[in-house]
User: Fold these one by one.
Assistant:
Number 1:
Amino acid sequence: MNKKFVLGIYDDEDVLLTAIENVRAAGTKIYEVFSPYPVHGIDDVLGIKRSRLPIAAFLFGLCGTSFALWMQIWMLGFDWPMIIGGKPHIALPSFIPVTFELTVLFAAFGMVFTFFTVERMIPTFKVNVFDKRSTDDKFVMAIEVKEGVTDMKALDNLLRSNGAIEVNEKEVVK
Amino acid sequence: MQHVSPIREPLVTGGKTYHDITEDVCRQVEAAPNPRWAAAFGVALIGLAIFFYSVYRTLWFGIGEWGLNKTVGWAWDITNFVWWVGIGHAGTLISAVLLLFRQKWRSSINRAAEAMTIFAVICAAMFPVLHMGRPWLAYWVLPLPNTFGSLWVNFNSPLLWDVFAISTYFSVSLVFWYIGLVPDFATIRDRATGPIARRAYSFLSLGWTGSAKSWSRYETVSLILAGVATPLVLSVHTIVSMDFATSVIPGWHTTIFPPYFVAGAIFSGFAMVLTLMIITRKVFKLEDYITLEHVESMNKIIMTTGSIVGIAYTTEFFIAWYSQVTYEQYAFINRATGPYWWAYWTMMTCNVITPQLFWFRKIRRSLVATFIISIFVNIGMWFERFVIIVISLHRDYLPSSWAMFYPTWIDVGIYVGTFGLFFTLFFLFVKFFPVINMAEVKAILKSSSGVTHHHGHVKHPQGHHTNAVIVPGTATDSNTNTHHSNE
């Protein structure tokens, strides 16, 4: 199925932020906004919720801590108890470094792979971007045109009156 | 109503636009290799050849190829290991700690500094692995169920902590670096003209489109990674210092080692970043992005950490005297006046006196002086590790076993060779990867370029004025407004 989008191209982040507010206030649903760098304040005007990735990172970190402690206690305390340097079998102080490292390792990798999963980031040879300039110096606001919408002129006007330097249409095969 | 701060200098000079940044950074990725790059790469490959030859000798004939003896069982290998790991730390420090502290000046240099971290850690890892003598059995340091029954690794040993610390540090740094590269790979992908470049950078950019939602998550990920990498930096060098500090050798058995090693690592790391960045900005004409302001900021850090290191040297001496332990006192007298006095005084000169020169603003802002001093710092920090390791080992409790250490050509070859390895990787990086983080520099451009970035843009359509209201919380609203009222 083909999807049709109207793309408003902006060249300034402040103009973009105001435009997003106005377009949303006019009752138009914004499909997505693309920018060459993270624009601060865009989350609020677009209504993007705070990411829950920190929670994921914390939980993965917790897994790392428990795994590391379990591994060291079980290996040196139960599976093959040996006295090394007069230390007790379960010498917790000397388990701290490895526990810390594994906590960091699990937290970092767990969070990054969660990020890749939710963003569907995989190595690929072909990437469809709406407007290639959005990774260079332009900000692109994409609005999905639903079946049966005919009043393209109004949409065009709305974007242009809010500072868009260009308004383009694009069809994407889904 | 452009406000120019009298205190803070712009971090991006030359009146750049977003597009200029893309052009300036992508230029060397897209252009054919320039002859100077090719020549430098050739030299690095010779170094790499020396590395492979020395490694081949070490593995074929054994560790006897090195100058180690029964007294000095650790010498150049561990010196080089600690030195390279230390160099790596500045990269994570710039990218993680300065990100947490919201230091915008990190943006132009963090990419190269992180790359330096990765390559330095690779070089560092070579030494303990080669010192094993039989690196193909290196997996024995991992807690794997093995054929000897359930005999596990010794979690009480700092050497094992090192295994976990270095491998975690390496892999987390690699991920941090890569995540940072993804949006810039996407920029190169969207500009690519050739099919190979387009495919390669598509592959590397993992389908990145730069949507607002993605950026939001991306920033969360960067921040958390910085948050976990910051204590990681401190832990890694602390653990490396424990290789020594938990032993009972006079000169090693000191509680001051962890903070002292961490400061030394940052000290040498920043020096190496400067050495590399001064050359890179010159060769790739990036003077507008890596400004004197950046150099000065780094020099201030070198001055601070250099002073910490200097205080640590003095404290060690004081504690040796104050402890009233004969062996400890002898170890330090021997450092300053024994057969290796020249190494000790090289260390003192390079590390204690050199950074103090940065109190002078003229020197702090001079590229030539900074370059020379950065090399001195690196020499000094190598000698610091040499002093701690070799001088402490060559005379310990038993005078009958006192000995001297003389490096062989293989020792020298491996050390010189790791420079070949490091620079081979670094030159490949600067050629094929964007050496400056474009996305981040673009993000600070408006607030820190010193000029409004508007010139040269398409004139805005009528009706715009009314909409260009001030967005609360953005520092540079005035730019936009002034511009429009002048139209």
Note: Chain A touches chain B through 77 residues (CB under 8 Å).
Number 2:
Amino acid sequence: MRVTVKKLLSAIVFLVISISLVLSGCGSKGKNQSSSNESTNTKSENQAKLEPITLSVYVNAPGQQPTKDNKIYKLIEEELGVKFQFEYLVGDSKQRFGVMIASGDYPDIVNGGTELINAGAFIPLEDLIKEHAPNLYQHYKPFWNKIKDPDSGKIYVMPDYGRFYGDFNRTAHYGPAFWIQKQVLEDAGYPSVDKINTLDEYFELIENYVKKNPTIDGKPTIGFEILSYDWRNFCLTNPPQHLIGKPNEGGVVVNYETNIAEIFADKDYAKAYYKKLNEINAKGLLDRETFTQNYDQYLAKIASGRVVGMFDQGWNFGSARDSLIEQGLINRTYVPLPVMLDESYAGHDWYADRPAINVNSGFGITVNAKDPIRIIKMFDTLITERWQKILQWGIEGEDYLVDKNGRFYRTPEQRTNANDQVWQLANKAMGIFDKGPKMEGVYSDGNACGPGDQPEEYFAGLSDYDKGFLNAYGFKTLTEFLRKPPENPIAYPAWQINIIDGSEAKIASTKLNDLSMKYLPRAILAPMDQFDAIWNEYVSEIRKLNIKAYEDRINEQIQWRIKNWSNN
Amino acid sequence: MPEVAVVKKRQERPQKEKNIITLKTLKAQKQLMFMSLPFLAYIILFSYVPAIGWVMAFQDFKPAKSFFNQQWVGFKHFQFLFSDSGFLRVLRNTLAMSFINLVLGFVTAILLALLLNEIKNALFKRTVQTISYLPHFLSWVIVAGLVSNALSTEDGIINILLLNLGLIKEPILWLGKGEYFWGIVGAAKVWKEVGWNTIIYLSAMSSIDPALYEAADIDGANRYHKMWHITLPGIKPTFVVLLIMSVGHILNAGFEVQYLLGNGLVVDWSETIDIFVLKYGISQFNFSLATAAGIFKTVVSVILIYTANTISKKIGEEQLI
């Protein structure tokens, strides 16, 4: 009998251990909850105005945690009593949102867009902002209707970019363009921009350079690259709209007189462009691997300095550009050219655009936040000029200096610091600033909002090579290669239109994208006499799709925007 | 010799089937019952409870809404799946790549295991084994990077090798031709998994009674005879069980490697069901479609497993269920 009792006992012990092991995952969660409950309890006990609060923040971009003693966060904690707990994106953002939505486990502040709005994760902000955040209200007032969610008419996220103050002035171009290595222009004797602004002239420039320089640093020169990896395939699909003088609207071009949008993938000017690429390939100027390489391989090729030109958006190859600069290959960095389909479009390039307010992304306050008023008040304080200067320039005297005319400037050391990623972790509040509401353009005292846009700062930070290069053209910045952007049409940009997930329109646009990915590379790599046949097949496949559903959704939204945004 | 083993097993089986569970046996084995309880709970909690989510496939599921506010749509998502022209294509690709992986995987693993088993120098054997199973621990992201570097037209080792051997005149764009894609995936899988897959066969081989080999020696069998008549029949039960399990996974041709190595030029050969589901289901927040595809895969897997099991039973082999 005793033996069985002992056995039974050991079985029970085993059972308990295994259950506790299985449930340990849930256990730790429970613990977290109880501790946060405790902190709320103590909060309600002493309702002092600035009692410390810790906010959990999700930033939808990869990043690193700031150091514990980060000086800007310390200042925010001292003055506003707010501490942050950041979670950065690891892996795929859609997946992360999916998990968040499925579990309902939202941080207090989440950097997200339509997915979370549709899932009901955010609280509406318009009353909160009007009542508790006068500065923020002033900040968004010109775009008040624009930043409302079209489906519900409520404001859920505070847009991060695109709210400009003062004159529009940009020192660098991060948008789309046909890029060319500075060395190529130098070798060609700095031809004036109107001599190199058509498709034919652009590729002639490349052809001549590759002929004269078959190798760069002992490796074969690559004439032209087209990235088509994953969602970055805009390098392949977007150029036709730019070639006829339209800004980046995504998959459609909009007629600004009738305000009607249509897809351009199957149009004749698109054919002309891809036919040109087909010809380029036949001449051996196109990288053989261009359609099989992934994003990293693409960046590695650019960073090797062997790629003469490509169509891309400036931000998309930023790390390769940084790498070229680090290697001292400044002559292998790129200049944006206003390349047009033919001479008749010259001067109508719209590569540089005035950034429209970024309506789809920014911080929103989630339904889980315990004190939304406190949060909105914090953002309200941070959008004041004093705090914007701290967030963008840093601390006066430490991170930048002010000359006797009141202009902000930096010493070379401060400039190097600001670009040092390790330094940034301890001295910049990137987690809350990058995706937070921010001022762009100029402050009321005339200084640029960020150091990068201060013209004298920009020029002082240039290398000698760049100074010489710009002098040869008589330019102050590289953006002068492109036309100064005209005012944006009201409904611009169409690429921000939310094509509802799972709808006919979305399926059509996904399938159109699939077709482009399948046929365009094939057409471009085909022998020249087969191009037309493949192109015709591509067009007939497109015609089979429900393109109308896609265009209708965009047109409906354009009309909605015209109606609702005009009276701002 | 092997006949003896088979006969033995045949005798065992009818005995097993006579085992009827009575209250008495339950009582006698209550400790065992207690011990298995947590695992039963685990399986119910993590394998059966989530299956409730299958109802999503018959709704237009929106995460924000409660269960009762969801819109029921019947078989709409299944219809979309089966009527889409792309689905047949991805089904074909999935089956083809699965089949290639299955055959290549088994053949290479058993071959390597046989060869390793013949090596008498323990140090050399262990070294080879370790080297061959190390790639198993690499993530597919890294392996895909290695593969695409190896196949590069510029400095890829495969092209350099073939050029220097004079087999080709100019580098081949391996990843740009759909016809090569299945083979590349199969080869990459073999490279990554062959060593790992041999482990189980090697352990099965080590459990073969050495007396059988000695007896065969006396009968004058050479190495090949011993391999053919002792080692291979010895690992047959293991092989059959693994085969039945793999057949159940035939619709899981994988996702990462095709996603990472695929591109516009080979899309007709590279897209698998999983990629299709990612594109039209999950990344469009169309969880219902993703669930419908999941149900389809599960149903096919269950059918295949039972079929394989029944066949195996009919021909007198090992069975799983």
Note: Residues 22-48 of chain A have pLDDT under 50 and may be disordered.
